[in-house]
Write a structure and sequence with these properties.
Layout: H1 8-11, H2 15-31, H3 44-58, H4 64-69, H5 74-78, H6 85-100, H7 109-126
Helix pairs in contact: 2-3, 2-6, 6-7
Amino acid sequence: MTEQPTSFYDEVGGAETFQTIVSTFYQLVREDEILRPLYPDDDLDGAEERLRMFLEQYWGGPRTYSDLRGHPRLRMRHAPFKVGPLERDAWLRCMHTAVAEVDSSTLDDAHRQVLLNYLEMAAQSMVNSPF
């Protein structure tokens, strides 16, 4: 019998790590003058939960996101919002800060870089406006 390979999700501490990153990220979003207006007042908590579920699933954790919401279709879901370089950079600034809050014994340099590379690619792919 062969063992299942360990997922990135498990290697970096699972749900607790992603909860920390996403919670910190949304604390920063709530204070950010560029990002805060993009979120309806009554849906910040929902957005936080959806991002956490998405990241957990993407990195090999529970498939809760797809079970509840179907295929991620990130560009389609973000199409109603103007996302230009300014919004992308603000999102990345908050996300980099949130990832930096995770201690190095949980998220070592190699895993941290893989995560940041993905987040940077994902943020760039959401840009739908030149301004």
